[in-house]
Design goal:
The chain has 279 residues and is an alpha/beta fold. The chain has one domain (12-232): TIM Barrel, CATH 3.20.20. The chain is built from 7 helices and 12 strands.
Length: 279
């Protein structure tokens, strides 16, 4: 949990608990699992316990909401960077209820609920037709197969903002079936696309055309696009020979390994910081 988060697309992060179980290829090199182990918390996997927090921890968003109210400026809260709010475990039910109450008590905070389990949303939230206006509901889609499995579950919900985290982006994704609203299929459309490559141990490369495709699809349908990072692999053509260390070939493009900071977050020479409109 952190005020003034280092994540480019949010102001704060809040974790109602720590711990999760891997469910798809995006989870293979989970940064949250790595971080939890680094600080001595064995909270990953089906058999592992989850880590819960005191009322002092839960008071932080109340304070952020008061600050946002005083400044007259909304704040985004990413929930949860170290867990999945919609993980199906009996002991999480009362903590989810506590989170729903907190969201309703903090109307100046836009809560970004990102999940890899959108199929569980319907049975775990107390809202149906009328969601709180400060909820942005998202799912991770790293490739086409995962997009096809998760997006129908996400896009049937009437949250004010529906967003995708295509990070780590592991393949090209065609969003044409879901990017705009479709009343016949009860799809509400995508409002925001976040794309990025993988960083950390074992990072897999992201082909630049995969990111370009998402950018261009978003532009065509007037959807906000945010390019978060290259991760540890960038096209060799955009760096100097002196910067090259390890190189690999990915679908005809030479990719070079760099530190995350060196790799940066420019796509075709531009920074893409799109955000959906919020009230």
């Amino acid at each position: 949990m952190a005020k003034n988060s280092s994540i480019e697309w949010t102001h704060h992060t809040f974790n109602p608990w720590w711990g999760c179980t891997k469910v798809s290829p995006a989870c293979d090199h989970c940064y949250a699992e790595t971080w939890a182990k680094r600080v001595g918390q064995a909270v990953w996997g089906k058999e592992a316990p989850r880590r819960f927090f005191t009322d002092k921890h839960w008071y932080d968003p109340i304070r952020w909401n008061a600050e946002a109210t005083a400044e007259g400026e909304r704040r985004r809260v990413f929930c949860a960077s170290m867990a999945d709010v919609f993980e199906k475990r009996p002991e999480l039910t009362p903590w989810r209820k506590k989170l729903w109450d907190l969201i309703e008590e903090t109307p100046m905070l836009d809560w970004l609920l990102l999940t890899k389990r959108p199929q569980n949303i319907e049975k775990m939230v107390p809202w149906s037709a009328h969601w709180p206006a400060n909820i942005w509901l998202g799912t991770t889609v790293e490739n086409q197969k995962v997009a096809e499995a998760r997006l129908p579950h996400l896009l049937k919900h009437r949250a004010k903002v529906r967003f995708l985290s295509c990070e780590p982006l592991l393949g090209e994704i065609n969003l044409s079936a879901w990017i705009k609203a479709n009343k016949t299929q009860e799809i509400h459309g995508i409002d925001w696309i976040i794309a990025g490559g993988e960083s950390g141990p074992g990072a897999r490369p992201m082909h630049p055309n995969w990111a370009r495709s998402l950018r261009d699809q978003a532009a065509k349908k007037n959807v906000a696009f945010h390019f978060k990072q290259w991760g540890h692999w960038v096209p060799s053509e955009i760096i100097t020979a002196e910067q090259k260390r390890a190189v690999i070939e990915l679908e005809g493009i030479e990719m070079a390994w760099l530190s995350k900071k060196q790799a940066g977050r420019k796509l075709d020479g531009d920074t893409w910081d799109g955000f959906p409109l919020a009230s």
